Amino acid sequence: MNAGFDRPEKAGVSLLSRDEINTEIRRLYEKRLKNAKQKAYAGYERIAFGSVNDAVRLLFEGESFISGSEGYDLFNVAEIKRPKEGALEIKFFDRLKALEKLEQYGHEENDSSSDFYKAVISGIKDGDDEA
User: Fold this and answer.
1) Degrees (nearest 5) of the Cα angle 91, 92, 95?
2) What residues contact residue 76 under an 8 Å CB cut-off, 6+ apart?
3) How many CB atoms lie within 10 A of CB 98?
4) Which neighbouring-strand residues pair with 77?
5) What is the pTM of this model?
6) Is residue 105 a contact partner of residue 98, using CB atoms and an 8 Å limit?
7) 44: buried, middle or exposed (CB in 10 Å: 19+, 13-18, 0-12)?
8) Which of 26, 61, 84, 114 has its CB 3.0 to 4.6 Å from that of 65, i.e. a possible disulfide?
9) How far apart are CA 12 and CA 48, in angstroms?
10) Nearest 10 degrees: CA dihedral of 10, 12, 13, 17?
């Protein structure tokens, strides 16, 4: 419970004053931050490119779908409502915003992707000039 120290408060202050301890804390923090960014990127990819088939099936099957909904992919669904009329209303996350976030992430992580987009745009413009 005290990590092997008689007075952990005093030992903690002493340990935090050591450069190698601070370096390791910083490394672990950056690793955790990178993992969080990777998870966010994967989530944006699922929103941008994921299937909406199960959500559409929910619209058509209604109650029979809900009773056996385990295993269905509703990741792209932001909200499900049942208004007074009894119909289902499904709201999806915005795919365009997810694509914008993916593009921003690409620019932050790898400037070569930015170079690629610039080359594609340049090629399109050159093609327009020749036509």
Assistant:
1) 150
2) 46, 47, 50, 51, 52, 55, 92, 93, 95
3) 19
4) 92
5) 0.58
6) no
7) buried
8) 61
9) 45
10) 140
Q: Which two tokens stand for residue 31?
A: 């690793």
Domain ranges in the chain are 50-93
Q: How much of the chain exceeds pLDDT 90, in percent?
A: 22
Residues of the chain with pLDDT under 70: 1-2, 62-70, 107-131
Residues 64 and 87: their CA atoms lie apart, in Å, by: 14
